[in-house]
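Batch 3, record 17
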Amino acid sequence: MKTSELIAKIKEKLDKDALEITETPFDDILIEINKDEIISVMETLKNDPELKFDSLLNQLGVDHKERFSVIYNLFSFSLDRKITVKAYLDRENPEISSIESVFRGINWFERETFDLLGIMFTGHSNLQRLLLPADWEGYPLRKDYAFPDQYHGIDNRARSNFK
Amino acid sequence: MMPGDGRDPGITDKFATQEMVLNMGPHHPSTHGVLRFILQTDGEMIVHVTPDIGFLHRGLEKIAELVPYQSFMPFTDRIDYLASLNCNLGYAVTVEKLAGIEVPEKAEYLRVIGAELTRMASHFIGFGALLLDLGAVTPFVHALRERERYNDLIEKLCGARLTHNYVRIGGVSHDIPSGFKEETMRYIDHLEYEFIKEFNDLASFNSILINRLKNVGVISREQAVEYTLTGPNLRGSGVSYDTRKDDTYSIYDRFDFDIPVGKGMFGTVGDSYDRYWARIEEITQSCRIIRQALNQIPDKGEIRTKLPKAFKVPEGEAYVRTECPRGQLGFYLISDGGKSPARLKIKTGSFSAMTIIELISHGVMVADLVAIIGSLDVIAPEIDR
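Prediction for the assembled complex:
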């Protein structure tokens, strides 16, 4: 299927949900959506018999300084195509619905994004820190993250280790 | 033991069976690397497994935002230290794609040869350690012997035995050394025609091993797709998908090779044996690729494209997948036009393989959990990054 045909098809299926669908370089399609519609968009993309984007390749959060975004990479074995779904979140209250009800495999991806960027996934079954210790403060992948001087008495300032 | 099953009630009270919480790891011989499982057990049976990860979290994604593009290459070695060259390649391919850099022909061949050699060496540890965990020490030593020869070869090529740092953005670091071609050819001949047969006779078709692995940890096709399993784990469940062939990168489209798929040789499709067998079969396929590459590689030519001193990647973003021994290694690279990435997300095969352990180890024996972890071939640094 040609990219333009696929875009037309996705547009038709998603109806009003999607904000903007564009062709991006490297054979990819970018779907920018409103964050409130994430679950219905994902359900359509996964379950529609003509699309069947049933494999979730990757999920990540990005800090754009003035706002956050959450990006999902989906793949369809039947179409042999991958697409990117993107939703923007505001900085003060970064919150989006968890899509665990659609893709069960997303569980750890969302935990990791929460852990490193502090994006809240409402409705997640176990939203705890995944990689960092439970008592860690701050979210390291944020651009305004300040490196801690010490952690439980372990000096973290690089130079003082070599005194 | 339920009360009223005919036994002395006093004994039931004294030795009442109750669920026990057992810690497996972080330092445990059968967890590959430092990872921990919290087991809820009822006798020998597992009620629930909670994996606890993060012991090897080094913040590679944060480091990527702080160092220039070229300087991140040695860090990619540490994503998966058993297959560092494949990780180098994945990162280089991603940056080259976004920056639009052409790689010289000879360098592409050297990359493929190095990557396939490393894939085999990683599989030696993969299935060797699985057998070791199940109690078979000898096959592991046989696999390590072959890996030792690989180490010597790759040391000739790039000077390092474990963390190779061989691939550069736009090429490779060293040209092919004299005698390397012949020695590699002898090595893959030995692997394909001698070692694999010997190893199969010794271990693969051993009835104890078959009984330990068949019908254990069955992952159906639907589960594998839903939980984003990739690489040999996905192919073990009967899905024929390999990024080298289906979403090709570098020069893999020039080679003729097959994708081994799990067929349920001794049990159900997608059991631990199928995943084990997919790795054994991949050794032969890697040998085929290396042989073709060694025959086609040009004698003369550049090995590296010259990059500007202040190397910058134009604004844009891309998600590029490459095939690592433990599944797809995906880099989501976002560039704002600067000297270092604005965001680099590393998605590894072990990460998603780890999430499925919780699902499939419900109600299995503790000893079978060891087989499941080993057959999924998860490795801690790749999960934590």
